[in-house]
Each structure stands twice: as C-alpha cells, then as structure tokens.
C-alpha cells in the first residue's frame, strides 16, 4: 500500500490558484431574503438534460439558505463587477445592502451587469470532503452578446480577457 502524501492547505491553494477561470455569484432567495456567494467552482455538467454544477463549502450560511430554497441562479460576472465579487465573497450578513438586483424566474437575484445568468432548481447534492457538489437543472438562461467582457480569476487576482 502506498503512503498517502501530506498536502498542506497553503500548497493546495497555491497550486490550484494556477487554474484561471471566470467568476460567478450564485444567488437564491428565501422568505423574501436574498442570499449570494462568490463561486469559482462553476461548471457545465450535461447538455441533455441541461445541468450545471458548483461546489460550495458546507459551512457556508449562503449555501444553507440556497439548499433550503431549492433553487439558485448563477450570475456570470462581467469585468466591471469586481466589487460585487468581493462583497459576495464576504461573510457579512448585510451583503445585499445597496446592491441592485431583480428576481429571475425562480425568484433568485439577477444582477444588472452580469454577462450571463443561469436560473436552476436543485437536482442533486453530493457530499465531497468539506464541500458539496450541487447539480442544478436549468430552467432559464440568458447571455449578453455585445460588450460582454468577463471577470477572470488567476493566482488570487483579477484580470480581463484580451
Ligand atoms: C474568486 C472567489 C471564488 C470563490 N469560489 C468559491 C467556491 O467555488 N466555493 C466556495 O465554497 N467558496 C468560494 N469562495 C468563497 C465564498 O464566496 C465565501 O466563503 C462565502 O461567500 C462566504 O459567505 P457565506 O458564509 O455567506 O456563504 C470564493 C471566493 C472568491 C473571492
């Protein structure tokens, strides 16, 4: 039997930071109260049926609210939304104070300025270490075609596509 390698959290984060990606804010609403968290671990899962996924930490209060609501909306962030990205990455209870949003078909918040959004119902939740793997069934989606510059994340910093 091979010995399991000991991988420290700092080394883990440093190497995984080399994976460049877009950034999303996943939102939900429960009893009229909005919830949202910044998510890099967004992915498409299946074309037919249309499924997407993301991986929230199980200690996230926003994810707990989303799970209870049964639906979520993935906002794909534009380059001008870095402030929103950082606001939604905080653990503050008043994250939505002063933030503009409109309700999508499931009621989950859609932010003006997002370059695309994907509204879903929760199809499945799988445990994976200290995170969950959430699979959503897409009920509605839209994209901005013109001037849609994405916000990109790489090695802990933000950048643009050029
Ligand atoms: C660029 C970026 C990407 C992130 N991606 C994830 C992610 O994929 N999964 C996750 O659990 N947290 C991720 N986070 C951290 C969460 O946004 C943060 O822990 C969460 O919003 C905490 O608030 P809450 O307790 O209200 O959920 C990310 C943060 C940043 C800045």
List its salient traits.
7-stranded antiparallel beta sheet, 3-stranded antiparallel beta sheet, mainly beta, 15% helix, binds flavin mononucleotide, 162 residues, Pnp Oxidase, Chain A, single chain, 3 helices
Structure description:
With 162 residues, the protein is mainly beta. It is built from 3 helices and 12 strands, in the order αβββββαβαββββββ. It starts with 8 loop residues before the first helix and ends with a strand. The model has no long low-confidence stretch (mean pLDDT 95). The protein has a domain at 19-41 and 63-121 and 140-155: Pnp Oxidase, Chain A (Roll). 15% of the residues lie in helices and 41% in strands. It has helices at 9-16, 61-69, 82-88, and strands at residues 21-22, 24-30, 33-39, 43-46, 51-54, 71-76, 102-103, 109-110, 116-128, 131-143, 152-154, 157-159. The strands form 3 sheets. A 7-stranded antiparallel beta sheet has the order 3-2-6-9-10-5-4. A hairpin with a 5-residue loop joins strand 7 (102-103) and strand 8. Bound molecules: flavin mononucleotide (FMN). Flavin mononucleotide (FMN) binds next to strand 3 and helix 2.
Would you state the CATH class of the domain at 19-41 and 63-121 and 140-155?
Mainly Beta
Structural class comes to: mainly beta
Mean pLDDT: 95
- Tell me the CATH architecture of the domain at 19-41 and 63-121 and 140-155: Roll
Described by the principal axes of the CA atoms, the overall outline is: globular
């Amino acid at each position: 039997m091979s010995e399991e390698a000991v991988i420290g959290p700092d080394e883990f984060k440093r190497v995984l930071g080399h994976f460049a990606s877009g950034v999303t804010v996943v939102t939900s609403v429960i009893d009229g109260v909005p919830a949202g968290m910044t998510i890099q671990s967004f992915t498409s899962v299946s074309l037919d049926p249309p499924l997407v996924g993301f991986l929230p930490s199980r200690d996230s209060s926003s994810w707990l609210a989303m799970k209870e609501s049964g639906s979520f909306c993935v906002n794909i962030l534009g380059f001008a939304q870095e402030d929103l990205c950082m606001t939604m990455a905080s653990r503050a209870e008043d994250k939505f104070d002063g933030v503009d949003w409109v309700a999508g078909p499931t009621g989950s918040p859609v932010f003006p300025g997002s370059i695309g959004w994907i509204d879903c119902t929760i199809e499945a939740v799988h445990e994976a270490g200290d995170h969950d793997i959430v699979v959503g069934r897409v009920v509605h989606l839209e994209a901005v075609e013109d001037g849609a510059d994405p916000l990109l994340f790489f090695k802990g910093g933000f950048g643009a596509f050029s």
